[in-house]
Design a protein that fits this description.
Layout (H helix, E strand, L loop, with lengths): L2 H13 L2 H8 L3 H15 L4 E3 L4 E3 L1 H26 L6 E7 L1 H8 L3 H7 L3 E7 L13 E6 L7 E7 L2 E5 L1 H7 L13 E4 L4 E6 L2 E6 L2 E5 L2 H9 L4 E5 H10 L3 E3 L4 E3 L3 E6 L7 H17 L5
Parallel strand pairs: 3-4, 3-5, 8-11, 8-12
Antiparallel strand pairs: 1-2, 5-15, 6-15, 7-12, 7-13, 9-10, 9-14
Length: 297
C-alpha cells in the first residue's frame, strides 16, 4: 500500500468529506478520490460509502482504519528517526580498500570515527583485488588507479603518483639511476600483474619491462624487499609515505621520464541519497590525505 493512499483514506474517515480531506492534506479533491480508488482497487474491497451528501466507512473500511492509523504512525516515527540521524553517522558502514593503504591510512581513522559516532559500525575489507561493490553491498570502495568511465560514481580524493624507490643501502652499493635506460642495469622488484613499468617519456606514454630479481603478489612484500635492499621498486606515493619520512626508502627521480600518475578515489554505488556514515567517513579520509600531502613528493 502506498503511504499517500493510506493517508487519504484516514483523512476521509476523519473529515467525512472528500473536499475537507483534500484541504487537510493540501491537495485537490480529485487527487484524494483517486488515492482512495487506488487503495480500494489494491485491496479488492470498497472502503467508503459515497452519497451525494455524505461519506461513511464500509465494514471493511472500519476494519482497515486502525491498521491504517498504525501504518501512518510507524511512517512518522521512521521519518523522525531518520531526520534526527541525518547529521550523524549510524548503521553499518562497509568499506573496501587496498591492503597497504587501508592499514596505513584508513585504520588510524577507525578509533575516532567509532568514538565520535556511537551508533556507527564499520566493516572493512582489505584487498588488492577489485570487488563488486554493488553485489556485495559495500558502501564505498577506495581505489588507486587511473579513473575510467564506469556505471559507478568515482570521487577523486588525492593524487597518488607512482614512484621509483630504493633503500639507501641499495643506492650506496649500486648507484642512483638517472635516465630511463639506466633501469636496465638495476635489479627490480616486481608486483605480480605489473611486469611493465609505465612512464611518461618526452610527452608519450611508454612502458618498460622491469628486470625482476624478485617478484611478489602483494604491495607489502614488494615494499619489504625494497627496504631490505633487494632492488628498485615502483610503488605509489601513499604506499611508501611513512618510509620516505623515516628515511628507510628514498625516491629515485629520473631526468628524462616520470612514472604514471594515479589518483586515490572513492567509488560509490550511486550519487543519490549518500548515507551520512559515508559522507562523514570520506570527510575524515580527505582531511587525512591533505595532511599527508604536506610531505613533498
Amino acid at each position: 500500500m502506498q503511504i499517500s493512499d493510506v493517508e487519504a483514506f484516514v483523512a476521509i474517515s476523519a473529515a467525512s468529506s472528500l473536499s475537507r480531506a483534500a484541504r487537510r492534506l493540501g491537495v485537490s479533491a480529485m487527487t484524494v478520490s483517486r488515492r482512495l480508488a487506488s487503495l480500494e482497487q489494491e485491496l479488492g474491497v470498497r472502503l467508503v460509502h459515497r452519497t451525494t451528501r455524505s461519506l461513511s466507512l464500509t465494514p471493511e473500511g472500519e476494519v482497515l482504519l486502525p491498521h491504517a492509523k498504525t501504518i501512518l504512525e510507524a511512517d512518522e516515527i521512521a521519518r523522525a528517526k531518520l531526520k534526527a540521524n541525518a547529521g550523524a553517522a549510524s548503521g553499518l558502514l562497509r568499506i573496501t580498500a587496498p591492503t597497504v593503504f587501508g592499514q596505513a591510512v584508513i585504520m588510524p581513522l577507525i578509533p575516532s570515527l567509532l568514538a565520535d559516532n556511537p551508533a556507527l559500525q564499520i566493516d572493512l575489507t582489505l584487498s588488492d583485488s577489485i570487488v563488486d561493490i554493488v553485489g556485495l553491498g559495500i558502501d564505498v570502495a577506495i581505489r588507486i588507479a587511473t579513473l575510467r568511465d564506469s556505471a559507478l560514481v568515482a570521487r577523486p580524493l588525492a593524487p597518488n603518483p607512482r614512484v621509483i624507490c630504493a633503500s639507501p643501502d641499495y643506492l650506496a652499493r649500486h648507484g642512483i639511476p638517472s635516465y630511463l635506460d639506466d633501469l636496465k642495469n638495476h635489479p627490480c622488484i616486481v608486483l605480480h600483474g605489473m611486469p611493465y613499468w609505465p612512464f611518461v617519456h618526452q610527452g608519450r606514454d611508454v612502458a618498460i619491462r622491469a628486470e625482476a630479481s624478485f617478484s611478489a603478489n602483494s604491495v607489502e612484500s614488494v615494499r619489504t624487499a625494497c627496504k631490505l635492499g633487494v632492488g628498485l621498486a615502483m610503488l605509489t606515493y601513499w604506499d611508501i609515505r611513512d618510509e620516505l619520512a623515516n628515511g628507510s626508502l628514498v625516491l629515485v627521480e629520473l631526468k628524462d621520464a616520470v612514472p604514471e600518475h594515479l589518483s586515490i578515489a572513492a567509488v560509490l554505488p550511486t550519487r543519490q541519497h549518500v548515507p551520512s556514515r559515508v559522507r562523514i567517513f570520506l570527510e575524515r579520509l580527505e582531511h587525512a590525505l591533505k595532511q599527508g600531502e604536506e610531505v613533498s613528493f
